[in-house]
Structures are given as structure tokens and as C-alpha cells.
Amino acid sequence: MMIMKNSTKPNDSPNDSPNDSPNDSSNGSSNGSSNDSSYTVPALSRGLLIIEMFRNTKRVLSTQDFSEALQVSPSSIYRIVQTLIDMKYLSKVARNTYELGPQVISNGFSYLASRDLVDVAAPHLQQLRDSTSVSCHLAILDGWETIYIYRALASQRLSVNVPIGTRLPNHTNALGRALLSQKTPKELSQLYIGKQLDNHPPPHPQNLLELVELIQIEQNQGYAISRSDNATAIAAPLFNYAGEIVAAINASGPDVVMKDKVVNHGIMEQLLKTAAKISMELGYRA
User: What is the pLDDT of residues 226-245, one digit of tens each?
Assistant: First the structure.
């Protein structure tokens, strides 16, 4: 991790996104409101709400679940459920019990797979950088290494600068350990077969046992933290639609900024909120 004197404005992204601002010139639309209840189709609304009820922890739901959530009788949503089944948005598991159908999964996965991770995360990291005044990075896992794939560089005179493409050992940085936080001790043992950890001095983990224990602590608290070269970084994982960790983000700054406990705590809270927002855009539902 390198602290640099920054004399130029940060270049947030190599590919600026176009500003989509459609101008609806349809007749009569100027006085209309998208929230006007007179334009709402109740059956369609209920059908979409039924689909939204499914979560990682609620993969199978019943007609009774639907009716209670929508506050209507089971008989009143029968046709909606049957339509969703016919269109393959729901699949029947047992009597009056359903799961999401192949149409939702196929269309949803195709859309999510088409979205580039950097494109999704960059605007959020820029906003996090602006609100915290520290640099923010996005990284992915490659074996026992962390690869930095995006940065939102802080404009302060002193800032942490890790160039895109940088590779660091996972156990030596917060991003890397956040990326590893879903792996079991057995998986970590297999990953680190023949790898020496003590060639990086403390406070980095010096062996596999120390790494496993540290990752467990950081997993329980929801974030990882590392200190090196007069700088501190706080990192959190990003999850996809399947609940898998696909990347991690951090907020990192010089110790002169990060050592303040109030500032540090505030940055940590904003980081976790940002990670949750990005994960939601990647399809994750807690």
C-alpha cells in the first residue's frame, strides 16, 4: 500500500458511462405521474410482489405465504399464481407450494452476467470516496493473490494509491482476507498447500492457523482491517445473486486520518452500506 502526494484530480474510470436521460414527449405525459394509482394494475402488482418475496432464506413459499404478505384471501390470488406457473415464473413444488421458475432464473442470470463488475461498483466507490475523503478500491481473488481492478483515488494531498493491476498476497491485506472470508478451514488449507506465510512480518498472519482464526474474526464482524506503511484499510466482501463472494471493496487512508476512532468508525459504516448496495445490484438478497 503506497501513500502518495496527490497533485491532480482523480481519474475515476477509464470508460465514462453515457448519461441516459430519456425525454418522454408522449402526448399527455407531461402532467402524468408514475405514482398515480389510477394507472396501477393490481393483478400485475401482486404478481411482481409474489416474485419479490423469494429470498436466499425463502426459496419455497406457499399460497398462504402469498396471501398473508399481500393481505388478501388465497382464492383471490389463485389466477395470478396460475398465470405465473403457466409463464414459468413459478414452479409448483407440492400442493399449494412454489419456488421460482426457470424463466426468472434464466432471464435474471443472463442480465446479471451481462453487467460488468467495475461498471456496477465504480459509481458507488466514487460516492464513497467523496463522502469519506479517502481512496477506495475494488479487487478480486486469484488463488492466493488479490488483484486490484479499480480505484477511486482521493483528491487529498496525502492519499493511498494502489495502482490497478497490483497483486498482493491475500493474507497481507484486508481486501484479500475479505475475499477469503467465505472459505472453510479445509478450503483454506488446500489453497495454501506449500505456501509460506511468514515471509511477511507481523501483524500479518504467520501461519495457516493464524490466518484461519483472523478470517473467522473478520467474518463475524463483517469487515476486515489491515495496517501497513502508515496507512489503514477497511474492506468488505461483495456477494452475487447466488450468495457467493465475487469481489471486495475497501476504504483506505493515511493513519493521520484513519487513527481517529470516530472517523474510522464512520468510514467503516459507510463502507458496509456501500458493499450492501453493490451486492444488491449484483442480485444478492440477504
Answer: 988 789 999 999 998 889 99
One domain, residues 79 and 119: no
Q: Which CATH number belongs to the domain containing residue 137 in this structure? A: 3.30.450.40
Is 27 a member of any domain?
no
- The per-residue pLDDT for range 158-180, each reduced to its tens digit, is 788 888 989 999 999 999 999 99
- 13 domain residue, yes or no: no
The reply to whether 203 and 129 lie within a common domain is yes
Angle between helices 78-86 and 42-52 (to 10 degrees): 70
Distance CA 67, CA 71 (A): 6
Residue type, 179: L
Banded pLDDT at 11 (limits 50, 70, 90): very low
My answer on whether 105 and 141 are in the same domain is: no
Q: Are 129 and 181 members of one domain?
A: yes
pTM of the complete model: 0.64
Instruction: Give the pLDDT band (50/70/90) at residue 113.
Output: low
Q: Is 21 among the domain residues? A: no
Sheet holding 60-62, edge to edge: 60-62, 97-100, 90-94
Domain span at 68 = 41-111
